[in-house]
Write a structure and sequence with these properties.
CATH class of the largest domain: Alpha Beta
Helix content: 25-40%
CATH architecture of the largest domain: 3-Layer(aba) Sandwich
CATH topology of the largest domain: Rossmann fold
Radius of gyration: 17 Å
Number of helices: 5
Largest sheet: 4 strands, mixed
Number of strands: 4
Mean pLDDT: 85
Strand content: 15-25%
Order of helices and strands: EHEHHHHEE
CATH superfamily of the largest domain: Vaccinia Virus protein VP39
């Protein structure tokens, strides 16, 4: 592929080993001269790592509280967030055969923040 892009995707994969394998595969399938642009949180505050909203959602679903009540009235959802250390993301991309040429802060490399986690955008070429 000439271009591989992933934004706001990998952080929802629950296992970092699987995230790492996806990063390797994204780099591996790049055509010579191809590029990849990937966003991934590099850290997450403890409060967010605990994910109390997701845990509350699942606990209340077990208690048979309707999903609409959880979403609409309580603002809860089952979304899981993950993060991966900067060095681990770069290592996975290198193992896939690509070179990280830039790392930028923010969702789009512009320093923008959506949550409290530190989001980095990686640009790599093969």
């Amino acid at each position: 592929f000439d271009l591989v892009v992933s934004f706001i995707v990998l952080q929802h994969v629950p296992d970092r080993a699987v995230i790492s394998s996806y990063l390797r595969d994204m780099a591996r399938i790049l055509a010579p001269g191809g590029a990849m642009v990937v966003q991934m949180p590099a850290s997450m505050p403890l409060r967010q790592r605990i994910q109390w909203r997701r845990r509350a959602y699942h606990g209340l679903r077990v208690a048979r509280v309707p999903e609409r009540t959880l979403y609409d009235r309580l603002g809860l959802d089952p979304i899981r967030m993950n993060w991966m250390a900067h060095r681990d993301v770069e290592a996975a991309i290198r193992l896939g055969g690509a070179d990280v040429i830039a790392v930028q802060d923010g969702w789009l490399g512009d320093g923008s923040r959506v949550g409290r986690e530190e989001n980095l955008t990686y640009i790599a070429t093969r």
